[in-house]
TrEMBL record:
EC number: 2.4.1.1
Protein name as catalogued: Alpha-1,4 glucan phosphorylase
GO molecular function: glycogen phosphorylase activity; pyridoxal phosphate binding
Domain of life: Eukaryota
Organism, as annotated: Baudoinia panamericana (strain UAMH 10762)
Record-linked CDD domains: GT35_Glycogen_Phosphorylase
Substrates-to-products reaction catalysed: [(1->4)-alpha-D-glucosyl](n) + phosphate = [(1->4)-alpha-D-glucosyl](n-1) + alpha-D-glucose 1-phosphate
Pfam (any one): Phosphorylase
GO cellular component, one term: cytoplasm
Its job: Allosteric enzyme that catalyzes the rate-limiting step in glycogen catabolism, the phosphorolytic cleavage of glycogen to produce glucose-1-phosphate, and plays a central role in maintaining cellular and organismal glucose homeostasis.
Similarity comment: Belongs to the glycogen phosphorylase family.
Cofactors required: pyridoxal 5'-phosphate
SUPFAM superfamilies, A to Z: UDP-Glycosyltransferase/glycogen phosphorylase
PANTHER family documented for this protein: GLYCOGEN PHOSPHORYLASE, GLYCOGEN PHOSPHORYLASE, LIVER FORM
Lineage: Eukaryota, Fungi, Dikarya, Ascomycota, Pezizomycotina
């Protein structure tokens, strides 16, 4: 019999060093004589990986035997960032590794920063999925993530002459965290035709045939939980030609190029993450990605279920599938297809299984961001699915007609098919109709989806189909890892790190809000974090900033609705005011650094213009000797997860200033406050719940409310549009050429002056400027400011993604945790 393998686990720095050396010399076949930081990183990662893998295998085995319901989180994006620091925290041997590395002559920070980010996502939606995986494992839920193994993640951003330039992010050179499973493959079909026939019993059968086959290969990555042995699985699918390297028939008959071309076409499917936050319209390759991933994942899930030999009606008791936005909506017709075409179930029975299995999370109400696919494209690529979508729609519309006979015009409004030219499939409607629950991601947002985009559906299904799960963030990465000193300070007062598993315990630090020593330590940590960002800014941007200045930060994807333009116009306004002051008055001004960071979608010209303007303004202001440290403007290049871990702990104030009603939740707002920064924000998304938790005195809210937005927009078009006079001055300055050729910014200015100011920049400008003044005043009273920040941190317990995941588990998935056995 086989002996159970037991990894010789390191427990001392010495043993750790041995493990590192072993991996460098044998796994990597490198000599120790030229052991650089890259090699030290690799050895360290592999040493920790060994320990993760044991618990990973154990967890998977336990979950298989336990035979209870599992969660499958389908997301086209997982913005994981770096894995080593997280692995060290969860394995619990970071200090041992630190000592060991130091004996080998390395600093932990330098080794950790050798790792490339796993940047398989665009922004908030992808990072949310990563936080959810962390919480699912930490709370011992049996759960898998499913996604694509993109060869290229989100592009790297370089700023050249003030313009964004996109550079490919090839991240797989050395990735110790993934395990290829060449034995776990799924053949996925595209194109072809549907043949219908009667079987012996007289039943109509549809066969989808003559398609093109692409093979999905599984790559697995371990997802360890904190303070638990549970290690879940993230499965990424990679595409390759179904016949392997080359089509040998073609190859042997001399068609070398055709053979290679087939192979490349197949590999293109998982080649690159779309960088567009969904604006990528109608691209066949994107639809192929979506189906490829849905089909492979469902095949895998169904295969696992079938091993249990249970009846199909038990499927929803074993499987909960969560759709992260509409990107995986094809999983709905795909499961229906498997059940009726391959497993021989009747339509109604199959459909009830489908509906009980899926839940759908909506992440935006912006109409331009709602996915639609043209009927001809789906017909061409997925002919059988189009038939099924039409049948789903027919059944649904018949149901609506029966129940609302008097509302004929509702039918065209709620139809899955939009009767345009060409016809379009409305993916959000299909996702909603095929799921048992639909949730928004913050209270306001969940209310808005019920009164706007899904209004008719509330009438049809009743309000209980709709629910709210306010987003959350993992305190492991966003407090403990990003801000180790603050985490340690909190632990020293609470007596342990238990609060990292139950963030509501943070409320106990409110008792120290008047404790002199605690306050001093808290303030010192904030200063050190600001000094760290200042050093980083000098090193990579070449801009010297004073850590004593007020650090004002806005980092997120660049979008008109997020209103970075409002921020930079405010900066220009501030500059004009400073220039107009006497030197004596200037001396009383609160110095400030305005940091920006974020990527623009490559084809989003307005967003790119905003980046350009920020950089031009930065150049002019930073060079102004008269202004000096009173105002500095910094655009931080290539904002990503690992940079966020440096940037976020360094804020005094961060900006979350979307037009009310447009930002579904926001999650960086939570990260900033948890790290002892305050927020300037609109009454939008999770800002509203942050206000409820921390108290109105501890946040700077401004601007028009969501319920007034429609009227204001109407007035812009049908009343006369009056530009805010301060904003007018800002525009005059831009037009004067102070920031370079004004023509470059005319589209941006005109979107406000000429084209109706859709995002209400002018309407909110005065309120924004006034609130920034309040902030300057408030910051002068450092003691009062400190009280606000400490109080806020202590009240952030609600925003842990652990709370969030427990809500999904209870209200949507109906799954229970599976506790790992005590260590043997
Ligand atoms: C794209 C181009 C132009 C204008 C808008 C978009 C766009 C907007 C929203 C595309 C996709 C959008 O939604 C998807 C998304 O990423 N939503 C984000 O999800 C996060 C996690 O729930 C939330 O915190 C963010 O508020 C929400 O914007």
């Amino acid at each position: 019999a086989w002996k159970k393998y037991s990894a010789k686990e390191f427990t001392t720095p010495d043993e750790f060093e041995q493990a590192v050396v072993k991996h460098i010399e044998t796994t990597l076949a490198r000599s120790l004589f030229n052991c650089d930081e890259a090699a030290a990183y690799s050895g360290t990662a592999l040493a920790f990986r060994d320990r993760l893998v044991i618990e990973w295998n154990r967890t998977q085995q336990q979950q298989t035997l336990a035979d209870q319901k599992r969660v499958y989180y389908l997301s086209l994006e997982f913005l994981m960032g770096r894995a080593l620091d997280n692995a060290m925290l969860n394995v619990g041997m970071k200090d041992v590794a630190r000592k060991g590395l130091s004996e080998l002559g390395f600093r932990m920070e330098d080794i950790v920063s050798q790792e490339r980010d796993a940047a398989l996502g665009n922004g908030g939606l992808g990072r949310l999925a990563a936080c959810f995986l962390d919480s699912l494992a930490t709370l011992n839920y049996p759960a898998w993530g499913y996604a694509l193994r993109y060869k290229y993640g989100i592009f790297r951003q370089e700023i050249i002459d003030g313009y964004q330039v996109e550079v490919p992010d090839y991240w797989l050179d050395f990735n110790p965290w993934e395990f290829p499973r060449h034995d776990v493959t799924v053949d996925v079909q595209f194109y072809g035709n549907v043949r219908k026939y009667m079987d012996e019993s007289g039943k109509q059968v549809s066969v989808w045939e003559n398609g093109e086959i692409v093979t999905a290969v599984a790559y697995d990555a371990p997802v360890p939980g904190y303070g638990t042995r549970t290690t879940n699985n993230l499965r990424l699918w990679s595409s390759k030609a179904s016949h392997g390297e080359f089509d040998f028939t073609k190859f042997n008959s001399g068609e070398y190029e055709a053979s290679v071309a087939d192979q490349q076409r197949a590999e293109t499917i998982s080649a690159v993450l779309y960088p567009n936050d969904s604006l990528e319209r109608g691209k066949e390759l994107r639809l192929k990605q979506q189906y490829f991933w849905c089909a492979a994942s469902l095949y895998d899930i169904v295969r696992r279920f079938k091993k249990s030999k249970k009846a199909w009606k038990d499927f929803p008791n074993q499987v909960a599938i969560q759709l992260n936005d509409t990107h995986p909506t094809l999983a709905i017709p795909e499961l229906q297809r498997i059940l009726i075409d391959q497993e021989g179930l009747e339509w109604d029975e199959a459909w009830s299984i489908v509906q009980s299995t899926f839940g759908y999370t909506n992440h935006t109400v912006l109409p331009e961001a709602l996915e639609k696919w043209s009927v001809p494209l789906i017909q061409h690529l997925l002919p059988r699915h189009l038939q099924i979508i039409y049948d789903i729609n027919l059944n649904f519309l018949q149901y609506v007609e029966r129940n609302f006979p008097k509302e004929r015009d509702m039918l065209s409004r709620v139809s899955i098919i939009e009767e345009s030219n060409p016809k379009m499939v409305r993916m959000a409607y299909l996702a909603l109709i095929g799921s048992h629950k639909v949730n928004g991601v913050a209270e306001l947002h969940s209310d808005l989806i019920k009164t706007t985009i899904f209004k008719d559906f509330v009438k049809i299904y009743g309000p209980d189909k709709f629910t709210n799960v306010t987003n959350g963030i993992t305190p492991r990465r966003w407090l403990h890892q990003a801000n180790p000193r603050l985490s340690e300070l909190i632990a020293s007062k609470l007596g342990s790190y238990d609060y990292l598993r139950d963030l509501t315990l943070l409320h106990k630090i409110e008792a120290y809000v008047d404790d002199k020593e605690f306050r001093k330590a808290f303030q010192d940590i904030k200063y050190a974090n600001k000094a760290r960002l200042a050093a980083y800014t000098l090193e990579v941007q070449g801009i010297k900033v004073n850590p004593k200045a007020l650090f004002d930060i806005q980092v997120k994807r660049i979008h008109e609705y997020k209103r970075q333009q409002l921020n930079i116009f405010g900066v220009i306004h501030r500059y004009l005011e400073l220039k107009a002051m006497s030197p004596k008055d200037r001396n009383k001004v609160q110095p400030r650094v305005s940091f920006f960071g974020g990527k623009a979608a490559p084809g989003y010209w307005m967003a790119k213009t905003v980046i350009h303007l920020i950089n031009q303004v930065s150049k002019v202001i930073n060079a102004d000797k008269e202004i000096g440290d009173l105002l500095k403007v910094v655009f931080l290049e290539d904002y990503n997860v690992s940079k966020a871990e440096i940037i976020i702990p360094a804020s005094d104030i961060s900006e979350h200033i979307s037009t009310a009603g447009t930002e579904a939740s926001g999650t960086s707002n939570m990260k900033f406050v948890l790290n002892g920064g305050l927020v300037i924000g609109t009454c939008d998304g999770a800002n509203i719940e942050i206000t409820r938790e921390v108290g109105e005195d501890n946040i700077f809210l401004f601007g028009n409310l969501s319920e007034d937005v429609e009227d204001l927009r109407h007035q812009h078009f049908y009343g006369d549009f009056k530009l805010d006079p301060m904003l007018q001055k800002v525009f005059d300055t831009i037009k004067s050429g102070m920031f370079g050729d004004a023509g470059q910014f005319s589209a941006l200015v005109n979107s406000i002056v000429e084209h109706g100011d859709y995002y209400l920049v002018s309407d909110d400008f005065k309120s924004y400027i006034d609130t920034q003044k309040l902030i300057d005043e408030a910051y002068k009273d450092q003691e009062a400011w400190l009280t606000k920040t400490i109080t806020s941190v202590s009240r952030m317990g609600f925003f842990s993604s652990d709370r969030c995941i427990d809500e999904y588990a209870e209200m949507i998935w109906n799954v229970e945790p599976l506790t790992p056995p005590k260590q043997n």
